[in-house]
Amino acid sequence: MAQDLTYMALALEQAKKCVPTPTAFCVGAVIVLPNGASGNTTNKDIIISTGYSRELPGNTHAEQCSLDKLTDDTRPQPKSAVLYSTMEPCSERLSGNLPCVDRIIDSGIFTTVKVGVIEPDTFIKNNSSKRKLEEAGIRYVHVSGLENECLEVATLGH
Ligand SMILES: [Zn+2]
Description:
Elements: H1 2-15, E1 28-33, E2 46-52, H2 62-68, E3 81-85, H3 100-107, E4 110-115, H4 129-135, E5 139-142, H5 147-154
Parallel strand pairs: 3-4, 4-5
Antiparallel strand pairs: 1-2, 1-3
Bound molecules: zinc ion.
The site of zinc ion (ZN) has 6 residues, from loops.
């Protein structure tokens, strides 16, 4: 869908805000409450949160920041939102922090996760987020068309 590329491009804009570092990726995330979703009566899509790598203090990830920035007012109803991330969510973290895929599942708000590019095996091999999300009943979609841009921004600083 052309819409997917629009939102992935917005996620890419978020990724470009990251301060590059050799030890992590630069990733952007956008949470959308689609037109017609439970709790959305506006007749259009609503962008309810955004995030990028290291936006919040600590070694934070884009998806994590977009979730942590939700408030009581913006938090969507269960199983209603779509997450766009320039890179597939991490399924393991060398730091021992909770992986984003678990945060996404635990939040309970997502129907679908759409990713711009799969995670290169630079830091962690065999990302299992696709399997974990699908086992949790969350659709995993690879949006085609911006892989090169997503990867280029992700590896700035490497
Ligand atoms: Zn992560």
